[in-house]
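Subject: Ribosome biogenesis regulatory protein structure
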Amino acid sequence: MEEAQYEVDLGNLMAFDNHHQFASPPTSREEVVKEAIEQGTKLVQAVADALFNLPSTQDPDGPLVRLPAPTTRLPREKPLPKPRPPTKWEMFAQSKGVQKRNKEKMVFDEQTGTWKRRHGYDRVNDDNDVPIIEAKATDEPGTDPFAERRKEKKGRVEKQEKNRLHNLKQAQKAGALPSHIQLAATALPIRGTQEKPKKVSKDELQNVAGMAAVATASGGKFDKKLPGEKPLKHEKKYKKYLPAVEGSGMGAMEKQQTEKVLNKLVSKNSHEILNVQKAVNMYNVKKEKRQRKQGGNSSTSGKLKGNRKPFKKTSKGGSSKKGKSK
């Protein structure tokens, strides 16, 4: 009877208790937290019981169930995107009843007798593959038909780009700019829609030019300098190493480096180097160790000489010990 009062939405794995009331008004926050934990435990148990009542399939990881469709409509995190306003061509096509139809990607090329792409690389009817262009009656003498064709193509591309920017401006005014263009629009705003970007200062340009100059394998050492280019202000200092191959100047360099290290040590630890008392003590300690060592060696050698016994040769070529006479 207690579980019947819970409203369970398995699609969202949620449970509600619309009839819950406090027995007495809470007097502290601890009582509210305790009551919330108790009720939350009951709701989670109700969701678990409802899950185990669903038909399940066996799996190596355990039983699996298919959740039903959710019954509770949850609010969206972000508002619904606004519809994009129609472009000029879409409005014209709608007024004239023009319907969009999908064209095939491959088209038969009569010149080469093969199938080629409609657009892109190695496309059909490519201007670069046309060796001869027939002259028209309206063509002026002395004009290059290939240059005219390239000029017309460039004009079509510029017109298409102008129309695209116009459509983006209209979409931004309506607040329906595509999501994949919003980030680019904040960094590089569309012309005529936002304020002009701040003018880059001279120092910033020099910093960018300096980073670009040293962005090579040699750090810009062997790059050709531009006319009027100044050396970098933040030029890096690199550690200099001795040459790996012996040469005429290698000995002088090693001597100079050794003197530099010694002078640094002397200047840093001069109070320890000029400590006469410490030097005398060390000399006395070493002298005592040497005398003790020499005395020990002489005593051991005398003992060995006193314990030595003579040997007597035998007729068989062997040797035998000869004892001392008392």
